[in-house]
Fold these 2 entries.
Entry 1:
Amino acid sequence: MTSTGTTWKLADHPKLPKGKTIAVVVLDGWGEASPDQYNCIHVAETPTMDSLKNGAPDRWRLVKAHGKAVGLPTDDDMGNSEVGHNALGAGRIYAQGAKLVDLALASGKIYEDEGFNYIKESFANNTLHLIGLMSDGGVHSRLDQLQLLLKGASERGAKKIRVHVLTDGRDVVDGSSVGFAETLEKDLAELRGKGIDAQVASGGGRMYVTLDRYENDWEVVKRGWDAQVLGEAPHKFKNVVEAIKKLREAPNANDQYLPPFVIVDESGKPVGPINDGDAVVTFNFRADRMTMLAQALEYEKFDKFERVRFPKIRYAGMLQYDGELKLPKHYLVSPPLIERTSGEYLVNNGIRTFACSETVKFGHVTFFWNGNRSGCFNSELEKYVEIPSDSGITFNVQPKMKALEIGEKAREAILSRKFDQVRVNIPNGDMVGHTGDIDATVVACKAADQAVKMILDAVKEVGGIYVVTADHGNAEDMVKRNKKGEPIVDKDGKVQIQTSHTLQPVPVAIGGPGLAGGVKYRKDVPNGGLANVAATVINLHGFVAPDDYETTLIEVVD
């Protein structure tokens, strides 16, 4: 494979040999925090990870996995799996989703580009629909960006606007949806005061309506489709604030799992189904939970569920969610152009690569690792294995998930000696952590540790090297805290459980019998982040990393 203007040949490392099998293990949602009862990694039995942390001090360290270290606007922005794997694979820091959108909105460029001008064709005679997560979590979307988009579209000719909201409760506190809805309603009322017909048209909880990912459960997308496109849902209300408040009164109700609802007028007719000629924008900037809806909105040939109607619309994503599939064709903000990833360099230098995870994180060790690119660089040298995730249940019901199966696939790949790099993502800490179930997350962390042991045992058997790291924090702190770091309690004295990612650093551990004796962590990279891992792995394969990569974390001492 060649690339115009790119010399793919990597220089040999002067002190590190080639030919060692390297296992790269990404523990999803595995940060480092003070030990207490809400640190599920601390509470869980994790002898393997404990041994790495308490072993050779020159071969275990922490790196940043949030904020500017992964291309996000500020260090108050929690990391996520997408930007984390982008950084791990790319070896450089790219402006990411939220930051790209912020820049485009601030400069006004978003309104000048092809995507906005494409949807603008519908403004004169049809409706503009905005679909996405109503949240200020900054992981998938941000409410202030929606507010600016509403303002900008209305100033540029949109006369009828309908917003289809998905409530959060995962990246933000459960129950915060009411406040977000009130803020949104205030903005829409101001637009109505200016003669623009602007309303919320439908809604539902993010994990039950629309925002599935990796084709885990198409029924989730169908529930959203029925409400957004057909105007059909089991619950009908006159406004969004009333809808959320009422639905939250049900036993065990949670923002993440609110059932679908539609807003109706005085005659009981839905106010905003999507029809022929309308424009639709999905305003999430993060790709993974928008791709399935994007397919339903864009693909004429579609067999995942019965759409009933397939309206002829002008559809654009906030960003292009899949660069390889060109999905969607139209988008408001151009994605970061990530070229020359470590995976591409290594394959072009003959490194045989195996990548594996279960469905919910398979895209992270492949698509996101490879710079938002689907498929292999060279199918003769690469093998990607996806293990189906459990569907139809929340992850705390089966907290071990597929950790042991991933460990077994990695073990087999290592022992086969057919691969130079075996790369996996073990999802448990993140996916179970997101449920807010502390006991289940403890079980999840134990299972992840067991999977790591299987992989490290195989590395030992073949005389290989391991790199164990994470993409962001989650399971290490499962409670909301005040500025003093103390757990926040509600009016009933119960602690407020945290289901979101954290701002904590993550570990990077290196070792194995194949690691040269003089290899240790450098002392002059104190603020290292995930992007520094790529050069480190390239070194361990026996090569010098490209000059523009973030510096390696290791040195070789004679």
Entry 2:
Amino acid sequence: MERTPIPVLTVQTAPYEDQRPTGGGGLRRPTGLFESQRNYLPNFVQSLLSSVDLRDRQGCTMVVGSDGRYFSRAAIEIVVQMAAANGIGRLVIGQNGILSTPAVSCIIRKIKAAGGIILTASHSPGGPGGEFGVKFEVANGGPAPDAVSDKIYQISKTLEEYTICPDLRVDLSRLGRQEFDLENKFKPFRVEIVDSVDIYLNLLRNIFDFNAIRNLLTGPNQIKIRIDAMNGVMGPYVRRILCDELGAPANSAINCVPLEDFGGQRPDPNLTYATALLEAMRGGEYGFGAAFDADGDRYMILGQNGFFVNASDSLAIIAANLSCIPYFCQMGVRGFGRSMPTSTALDKVAKVMKVPVYETPTGWRYFSNLMDSGRCSLCGEESFGTGSDHLREKDGLWAVLVWLSILAARKQSVEEIVRDHWAKFGRHYYCRFDYEALEPRTAYFIMRDLEALITDKSFSHQQFAVGNNIYSVERTDSFEYIDPVDGTVTKRQGLRIIFSDASRLIFRMSASSHVRATLRIYAESYEKDPSQHNKEPQSTFKKQHLSPPPSPSSLVPVL
């Protein structure tokens, strides 16, 4: 019996002025806005699809996944219906809609897809009162570059219609191929539902020595681990890879069922929100702990007794121990990348290894260009994101497996490895303070006045007293980045005060919200003397949501 072709409809709509992607082709908004504003999601999806040239879009393959948060299933249905109507030939979707961000990048690269759509708001809360997001990955498996994001935005401002197949229904739970005949289409539209873990797991097998990690977790000198998936997308990956494949006991993994509201908790792997993991680690029973954010690209590492490894130190320690990873022994190390606010701990390692360091604006898309050109092997950000050129996204589980590989090779505890690193390279004390929900106009004037203050000639070479330390200003600037690959210039990426001992103060506006602004202040102080490595950074670094912001006049010099 012949199937009746599914109709393709053109729906009239009106543009929204607020659909500018915040970086990497992503749009993140309150979930209620997506649900309540007429055509809000279809408008953005149409703008995204239309940003791909028609000749590249017709018949192409794209990958779709989500972190499982509330509204994901409804959104996937709309994405599928619109992809079909817009000429996409095949969609590859994770079973039940679940795919981590690293897995989407992996699949795009493996099958040479034209790109991918990830439904996630990263580490933001879920549920009806939380946030929802749509992120676009391009053909290299990385976030959309700024030129693509700008194109999406320009299309969104004049959009008058979108195309959709509203009668098309996909069974996300059934593995395998599903085909659909569409009106006025010569070839059927195909959807392939794939296991969420398989392709990504196969990639990891080719990067790591799984036998060494398995022996660490199951051998005579095994360590006990505690892994918190925070009820995000990483639950199936943790159970399948760390437990089933590498032998960690099933009770090593907690919060591994993806939930639409992440169990009522914010899926943000830091000391503020991963409190259940922190308390478990403080008990001393476990030698290694880790947590992941909602979509699996960020992570946090804890050692026995809750010993915390900040993200900048983690990046530097990984860099110093790449010889523990078969992938890098085979591929070599060409260079490192870090976002400008990330501490300069990585630079110290790079100097010893005699490899270049690329200092970029915040945003993984800047690393993608470096990796595509063969300049960068390892990169990371202070916001708990680390990755390598095996993908074009930051990769939380990859970073955890690197740490387990280092533990297996060096036969030391997390704390011993970190303290040995400090003894060799010095310690970079590091704090970040977030001043959230600022009125954008107020935030603008704070940054304007601060820039005027620190770039004035009278500010140069001033000294500031902090406790018993005196910090002398060496230089100040508004950071700009010139891409060494294509020469693209990115300006006004944060204000920097750099002191003579390499300590730094950085002020940067975050672009993750569309209504209110976030001012981030980063403080870095370098200490070479091992006898001074046991101090604690200010306790307030654990409280990343502070108010009110400081005024520029609060920078008081030594008289």
